[in-house]
Every structure is written in C-alpha cells, then in structure tokens.
Write a structure and sequence with these properties.
alpha/beta; seven-stranded mixed beta sheet; three-stranded antiparallel beta sheet; 9 helices; 16% strand; binds pyridoxal-5'-phosphate
C-alpha cells in the first residue's frame, strides 16, 4: 500500500498515524465491543471521547475558561449565518474585512441580517494582500468585526491582527486553526470547518466568549442559536460523533508532535522552502505580498499556462495529487496543512524543479 501526497485544500490529508489508530480501533473501541460510529452520543464511552477531545483542544490552543468550545455540524458556511443571527442584533451593524472569496461569502450572508460595513478590502489589488491595519475604517456601532485570517483560495494570510478595541473580533479560521499558537483572548468568536486542518468533514469547531452567547433574536432558529449548543454541551442534537472522535485523535497526535509551537516551526519551514522554490525559478510565480503569504495554501502559476495539464498529469504520476488551483484563480495550489509531511513538500519542490528544467 502506498499513500500519495495529497495537496487538496479540503477535505485534506489526515496524519497516517491517526488513520491507522482509527483502523485499529474500528471494530472494537477500547473493549466496548463496538465502533465509535455505533455508540450513543450520550453513553459513557462517547462522553469520554468527547470530553478528552475538548480538553486536548483547549490545551493545544490554551483556551481560557471564559470561552466555550462547541463541536457542531453545518460547516463554516453555517457560521456565516450563525454569527450575524446571534450578534448583529446588538447594534444592527457589523464590520467585515474583504480579503477574498471566503470573506465575500461571509459578507453576502451577513447582509441578510443587518448593515454590513466593509471596513477594509484588498479587492483593488486582486486580493494579493491584507489591507494595512492603519487604513481600516471601523464603526463604533459595529456589533463585531469579521475577518478571514487565511483565505484558502487566494493563499492570503493575516500577519498580525487589527486593534478593534472593545468590539469583538470574529475569525473564520477554517484553513489556519492549529497551524501555530494563537492568543484566543484576542477573539470573540473563532470558527472553523474541520476538514482542512482538524479532521474529517462534518464537524465545525466554534470557540466563543461567554458574554457573546445569548443575544440572538427570538426568530433565530434554535439550532442556530449558540445558547442551544452551549446549554446542550454540543449535544442538543446528535453531534457528528465519528468526526469528533477522529478530531480527538488528531489533537493527541499534535500533542505528541510537541503542540502548536512545534507545528508552527515545521509549517513555517515547509511554506518558506516552497515559496523559495517558486521565487527562485522564473518558470513559476506567486503574486501575494510576502508578509501575507499563507503557510497553509500556496497558489502558484506556471509562466506558460499551456503546460498546466502536463504539469498536473506528471505530478499525479509522481504521487503528488490535487494540485489544480481553484477554478476562480486557475494555476496550481498546494495545500500543506499540518498533516502534509515535510517530505511531501520536498517531493513537490523536486518535481517542480525537474518539470521546469525539462520544459524550459
Ligand atoms: C472551506 C472554507 C469554508 C467553507 O467551509 P464549509 O465547512 O465547507 O462550510 C469557509 N471558510 C474558509 C476560510 C474555508 O477555507
């Protein structure tokens, strides 16, 4: 059996050690005589899996006690609605920063529930940077400020955070959560679809400060009200149990690797060598401003786009899969989340150099 290096943006690679552990435990989890998929979410076995996973995530991110951690369904896209449904009513307006495709989706959804102010945008430079924080125009009436710290499609990542004073910062961290340490207290809400850097699809992580729970309008569907999930401890309805379990195995794997400080070092090194390979070969290019280049999603284009199909076909032959860029930007994109081993990045670089010299 051989596993490919899969550069998919999501669902993405999982650590092989995690999949092997899940395989060992598949038929009989810890002597329970059943697989995790078959367990009651309220039974003592699954409760143990659930509480351990939450504690491990809290340990990894050093989540303060005044934040709740929720394990929900609906994907990050549902949070585009849930955030305004729960918070917008406080003042009727919110600030959104527009850094690309995912910001735009969050903005479009936010507009359904109140006034959206675009406090900053990098659209005029085709989303190749994050707007300078000094130039942001924040409203004192905003109920929150929404950002997308890593734009998965454009490969644009925040370098630092804007100062929003007392106004809570809400962050869609779908493609950057757990890639490095963060200071959770800088945020009011952090949310992330799991299928990029956490675990399998079907699970959405929400980390929310206590004081932001409880302001949803009466008309808010109860399954979209954070109160329901806080009071129900993420079991107001049947949670995505198997994805929760697998995310828990990923958290344990991250702890064994040395936690998020260790991951940050590895991730930075992986990204730096790939960007170097792009910058040092005129066959390839990446348009993103250096300080805003994503550690997780690395888009690049070939100087001659006619060679794209050959590049993709030969890469696949070499065990390097899913490198095609998003349809909205074209070219290539290598997603190199935590589970992509450094050897995978090395193999890609070697292939890129080789392909360039054969086709120059
Ligand atoms: C993938 C992604 C989403 C959408 O996530 P779903 O879980 O599919 O809804 C939203 N935001 C960002 C930044 C993403 O990368």
């Amino acid at each position: 059996m051989s596993r490919i290096y899969n550069f998919s943006a999501g669902p993405a690679m999982l650590p092989t050690a995690v999949i092997e552990k899940a395989q060992q435990e598949m038929l009989d989890w810890h002597g329970s005589g059943m697989s995790v998929m078959e367990m009651s979410h309220r039974g003592k076995e699954f409760m143990e899996i659930a509480t351990t996973a939450e504690q491990d995530l809290r340990d990894l991110l050093k989540v303060p006690d005044n934040y709740k951690v929720l394990f929900l369904q609906g994907g990050a896209s549902s949070q585009f609605a849930m955030v305004p449904l729960n918070l917008m009513g406080r003042t009727g307006e919110a600030d959104y920063c527009n850094t690309g495709s995912w910001s735009k989706k969050a903005i479009a959804e936010g507009k359904r529930y109140g006034t959206v102010n675009i406090c900053a945008s990098s659209e005029q430079d085709s989303f190749t940077s994050v707007p300078e924080f000094n130039d942001w125009v924040l409203s004192d009436k905003a109920a929150y400020v929404h950002i997308t710290p890593n734009e998965t499609i454009g490969g644009v990542e925040f370098d630092g955070l804007p100062d929003t004073g007392d106004i809570p910062l809400v962050a869609d961290m779908s493609s950057t959560i757990l890639s490095r340490p963060i200071n959770v207290s800088d945020f009011g809400i952090i949310y992330a679809g799991a299928q990029k850097n956490v675990g399998p699809a079907g699970l959405t992580i929400v980390i929310i400060r206590d004081d932001l729970v409880g302001d949803a309008a009466d008309s808010c569907p109860s399954m979209f009200n954070y109160v329901t999930h806080v009071e129900g401890e993420s079991m107001a309805n049947t949670p995505p149990t198997y994805s929760w379990y697998l995310a828990g195995l990923v958290f344990q794997w991250l702890k064994e690797k040395g936690g998020l400080d260790a991951m940050a070092e590895i991730n930075q090194r992986k990204a730096a060598k790939l960007y170097d390979a792009i910058d040092n070969n005129e066959f390839y290019s990446n348009p993103v401003k250096k300080e805003n280049r994503s550690w997780m999603n690395v888009p690049f284009i070939l100087k001659n786009a006619d060679l794209d199909p050959a590049f993709l076909a030969e890469a696949k032959q070499a065990g390097l899969a899913t490198l095609k860029g998003h349809r909205s930007v074209g070219g290539m994109r290598a997603s190199i989340y935590n589970a992509m081993p450094e050897e995978g990045v090395d193999a890609l670089i070697q292939f890129m150099n080789d392909f360039a010299s054969r086709n120059s």
